[in-house]
Amino acid sequence: MDKDMTEVLKKAEVLIEALPYIQRFNRKVIVVKYGGSAMSNEELQRNVIKDVALLKLVGFKPIIVHGGGKEISRWVGKVGKEAEFVNGLRVTDEETMEIAEMVLSKVNKSLVTMVQELGVKAVGISGKDGCLLKVDRKYSDGKDIGFVGDVKEVNPDLLYDLLEKDFLPIVAPIGLDDNFQTYNINADDAACAIAKAVHAEKLAFLTDIEGIYKDINDKDSFLSRMKASEADKLIEEGFIGGGMLPKLANCTSAIRNGVNRVHILDGRIPHCLLLEIFTYHGVGTAILHDDDQLNDVPVSES
Ligand SMILES: Nc1ncnc2c1ncn2[C@@H]1O[C@H](COP(=O)(O)OP(=O)(O)O)[C@@H](O)[C@H]1O
Ligand SMILES: CC(=O)N[C@@H](CCC(=O)OP(=O)(O)O)C(=O)O
């Protein structure tokens, strides 16, 4: 067989290997939280968007929930303010709220454009639309941090309508309280709340590290999978810090409230989503139910 033909056959094998995963996740909802450093350059963004578009085109039902924290901080700086965070949450006064809503709306529409350039229909909304995200004011250790929302209710009707009509929903993390006041929501919290409400098959957090380490300074302590109770223990014992702390807490909350699998993936790796979904071993850290039998065997082989 000549070299060209061998190459072509290899490609065919890769496609065939994906078949059981395509069968398994057909028509299933996958929520992708996209933000943080994984959003930092346009090439990375285009790779992530290509992956999500591919998932859509092969019959999955992805929903993107995006952040844009770094871009918000840049614009907050431009008006002469210092970005301030308490336990990973942005202290959000009236002016910051206005900036956050403008920036997130711009990020939202640029993601919509990128998806549509790939031939997939997308609709960008925020948690305000269709009262998707209803919030209460969130306090951090009892401290008032301004217009920061704690999601208390998700109304997924609009999402279901969009999915039904074959649109890819792209959601900005902004919500309304009972008085229709606008609130800024941490994008991890928004993604988790949405994934729970729609009983997503998967929730994937794209972040700026390979996944969870037991000891962040020891590269050999990488954890490729863990059960929710093991994650609780790592948190309790102080192994998890920084922005990973609320992220992992969101993971365990999602797993315990109707989401089948949660993954923390390195958004800096090109096509990390495809690698996680279409390969047996996956990449990143998977957080599982305590009674999970690790039954990852694709349907056609089981
Ligand atoms: N045990 C741990 N394993 C992995 N990451 C950790 C751990 N403890 C702290 N972290 C930190 O959490 C960061 C990810 O959180 P964050 O920066 O908030 O992500 P994002 O901006 O993508 O939402 C990592 O870059 C890492 O520095
Ligand atoms: C309350 C709060 O902190 N909201 C976040 C919303 C954006 C976000 O979470 O963006 P990343 O996922 O890119 O960090 C913020 O203002 O930065």
How would you characterize this protein structure?
This protein has 302 residues and is an alpha/beta fold. It has a single domain, classed as Acetylglutamate kinase-like (Carbamate kinase, 3-Layer(aba) Sandwich), CATH 3.40.1160. The chain is 40% helix and 25% strand. The protein has helices at 3-25, 42-57, 69-78, 94-117, 157-164, 187-197, 228-236, 244-255, 272-278, and strands at residues 29-34, 61-66, 85-86, 89-90, 122-126, 133-140, 143-154, 168-172, 174-176, 182-184, 202-207, 212-213, 222-223, 225-227, 261-266, 285-288. The strands form five sheets. It has an eight-stranded mixed beta sheet with strand order 5-8-2-1-11-15-16-14, sandwiched between helices. A two-stranded antiparallel ribbon has the order 3-4. A hairpin with a 5-residue loop joins β9 (174-176) and β10 (182-184). α3 packs across α4 (94-117), α6 (187-197) packs parallel to α8 and α7 (228-236) runs antiparallel to α8 (244-255). The longest helix is centred in the middle third of the chain and has 24 residues, at 94-117. The radius of gyration is 19 Å and the shape is globular. The protein starts with a helix and ends in a 14-residue tail after the last strand. Adenosine-5'-diphosphate (ADP) binds at residues 35-37, 207-209, 212-213, 216, 239-244, 247.
